Amino acid sequence: MPKHSEVPSDARIGYVVKRYPRFSETFVVNEILAHEAAGTQVEIVAQFGPVDTHFQDAISRVRAPVHYLPAKASKASDLWRQLHAAARACPAAWSTVAANGDVDVRTLHQALALADLVRQRGIEHLHAHFATGATEIARLASALTGVPFTFTAHAKDIFHESVDPVDLERKLAAAHAVVTVSDYNVRHLSAAFPHLAHKVVRIYNGLDLEDFRYGAPTERAREILAVGRLVEKKGFRYLVDACRELVERGVAFTCAIVGAGDEEMDLRARAAEAGLEGVVTLTGPLPQREVKQRMRRAAALAVPCVVGADANQDGLPTVLLEAMALGTPCVSTDVTGIPEVLEDGVTGAMVPQHDAIALADALQGLLARSAERLALAERARGRIEEAFDVHRSAAALRAVFAGARREGVLREDRVPVH
Length: 418
Known about the structure:
- By secondary structure, the protein is of the alpha/beta class.
- About 45% of the residues lie in helices and about 15% in strands.
- Helix 1 (about 25-35) crosses helix 15 (about 390-415) and helix 9 (about 235-250) packs across helix 13 (about 355-370).
């Protein structure tokens, strides 16, 4: 067994996600590409296949193989065969299964398949995204194989009213380290689980800044852009209301809302009722290449996030980082980690949640004043370069992974050999 100073820094990493690829999870793709650029070997493990109709162009650059776990055992005998095979490879398998009697059959089946994949592919560390099913199967596979695991907690997986604190605590306790995407999230998790606060580290989601080159926003079309899933927490209903206010003020502009989701019909009806045909357009989802083109053209990006009635809220929207990197001035709210990147009057405009009039005021100012757009955009780009470079974020993640592996080695070194 190597001592901790000999633990390799380039171990093969298994990335565990619910679905791959997924249109809305550009941060996962960015992260994997940054690891690969640094020479790290990555294996992608997905619980389920994709359901989206559009995907990011960057996915074509990912070299990591993708493994899809079986959705469920076709019959009970298959699960028993898995269990016996796991017990032959890991004597602790039966006690691990017994200690997790509340785990459903599909989760156990996928965890056993992941454990087998870890052994077959020589995976030395597991990292899951979102503290939900992907983290649960990584936790169980880690217990079955002895390979350490970490996970990244984002937003819905820790804030939503459906989150079970007992389940989340179990995942935090089992993980070798827990990454989260904002200081706000660190404070939230530390307050909820103070005895586990030492495990939580903040690493921002980052961007490959070569893919997001800055363009000064002095000459921009009178367009407002919004990008995201059409769900309550994105606050797009307030953007539609702000657009109605701007029309009533006689402001000339257009607004495009890019994305799909449960609120699409409600938003279309809201826009139609306000007489905004030809002013507000819901485009549906678009490829990232086209979204970036629209960002470079727009005078402002609106990110009017709110805390939903079910406590769901955004962590730190990637689209906000992308627009700030490209030089598009942003208007947003003080939800969760957003104030860590957008400072009112410095790197963007901040308005209260649920306030369509304040949102309209801020957007009207950006449409009208090119000098203000330029000053905000220059400082915003500086903030992104300072804290949101994906290569630095990925390096910080790899340091967390290496620390988890060192801890695992030290634990094994302390186990007496009989």
